[in-house]
Amino acid sequence: MHIERVVDANTVTTEREFYDTQLFRVDFLYESTPYSVIHDFELGLQYFINRRLSNCSVDSIANLNFSSYDIAGGPDGAKRMRTPTEFFRVGAGYNFSYEGVTKIRGIEAEAWISVRDSFPLNLGSKVVNGTVELFYSRPGSTISSLLSNETAPVPLAINLTGTLCYDGDDCGKSTSLSSFSTFYDFSTTEPDFDVFDTSFCAQPGQYRIISMKIPGHEFGADIGQLRRSIRLGLTEYANISLLQVASIEVVGEDDKYIYVTLQILPVPSAADYPDPQSPDDVLQDLRSFTTSDDCFPFTIQLPSSGEKVRPCWVRVDPVCPTTSEPTECPGVSSSSSSSGVSSGAAAAIAIVMFIVGMICTMVLVLVVRFCRTRRRGFNLLHSKYRKQENEMEGFAD
Asked: Which residues are listed as membrane-spanning (predicted)?
């Protein structure tokens, strides 16, 4: 989804956002610098990437402050992704009234309004004397975008006004809020998982490379589905996070095999994840249980035929990234939150992201519900995290 936002009639900003049941990413510009923020709720991590300077900071979600609009806190202080009701704020006391039909970008839209004396936004912040207007396409309309054609009602715009308080219940710090946002390319189509790739944040020596060959010479036109099948097969078997399998590339094929390389990434020490496996642990496990025909102990499903096959090793030994001593792979260490993003920049951007979050919360429930259904099969692979999958940004460095 793309968002164009006009704030106080003085500035226009744009963001691009992607959602999954355990993942969130937003791309935006701050002072002409491109940034990306990724929240991984399975590992409990935030990745903050400055794409111009090639800096990447990693921090625990538990350390994030009021700007983290996609995060809710439980009685025990643990952070989790907000539920659909918490995202959309449609519970008791947040009723919307139907205003009628208007036009947004020349498209007929149904307008809904909610006037609220006070409502919480996230950790330690709220809006007082607020008004929220939502604009959806009319039932039966088909909205075409770069990603899909949506026949169900989709959000077209949101108008927010009120006073934003972000220093406790007494509104010690506040600012006037006036924001009109227009949504483009909204789609419930599942995003390519590679948009959440965090291999950029791994340093040489921290990851391992596997080269494999997959029986078959027809994988169809959808390379993305082949990558997804490989990722799901490997993470299910090895009991590792989805984001630990990265940079899956098809490097060739012949009349018998499809040749693929991928990276196994480490889990940063800031992660809230029980007993994470290192890349070396994964490789040792795979080698220990390699079948007699030199194939992996798990299967993947070919997207073209639906046939389940076992990938096989191209080389038994892992390929180490280039280091000062290429004959051995250094131990795995984690990225830290001190890797080049200044605290001043992070704090300033947090305020910008906070306003973005207010917009996102009004539309994310549609994606959450879609993804929850789509990912039901995958949730079975990680049963001990299923409760978290049902609990659905901003950031601080």
From this structure: 345-368
